[in-house]
Amino acid sequence: NQFTEQLKCLDLKLDIDSTVVAELQDFYRRRASVEQDYSDALAKLANGLKQRHVNETTKRPHWAPYTATTIWNTLLGSTLHLAEAHATLSDIFSKQMVQRLADMDEDAVRLHKQVKFLFCCREMMSSCQDRVLANTTKLQADQREYAHRQAAALEADRIRRRAEDKLLAANQKARSKGKDPDNSQRSMRAQNEFDLVSAQI
């Protein structure tokens, strides 16, 4: 039914979202590793050149005042800054991004459970309403049937009482004339009518 299909769609969405989040986490872990490797390589390059310059300072006594030396120092400094920036980026990717994605996945699972619970509650409410409606409809039908039978019983009792009154009146009239009610035509007709009515009730 529609409820089952909606739950399937919710489950499928959660499955897709969780898969995408897991792949993003893996991507950022790998990206963090790449950024860290690049940072380490840049730092190694710059520090290696600086160390070589320190080791050969005696052979390079006149480097300081020249523009080329300034450019060289600036290049080493910017390379070290770039190495630090990539190390920071690696840290952001490996910790903050991966953790944020894990939090998002937990939030999605929690929200999925809440929505699923609400869907189940709605379905149960709908089912209860259907049962209440069915029971109410049946009760109304039973009440109508009871009222119909009650009316029929009252009408049958009224007809029986009228037939009984006729029989009593016929018997009384026969006795007042000194006749035996069992032999009176009127009494016999009234008795037959009473028996017929009684048999139908």
UniProtKB/TrEMBL annotation:
Keyword rRNA-binding: no
InterPro entries, alphabetized: AH/BAR_dom_sf, FCH_dom, SLIT-ROBO_RhoGAP
Domain named FCH: residues: 1-93
Pfam families the record matches: FCH
Residue span of region Disordered: 169-201
Alphabetical UniProt keywords: Coiled coil
Superkingdom in the source lineage: Eukaryota
Signal sequence, renumbered to the chain: none
Cited PANTHER family: SLIT-ROBO RHO GTPASE ACTIVATING PROTEIN (PTHR14166)
Descriptive protein name: FCH domain-containing protein
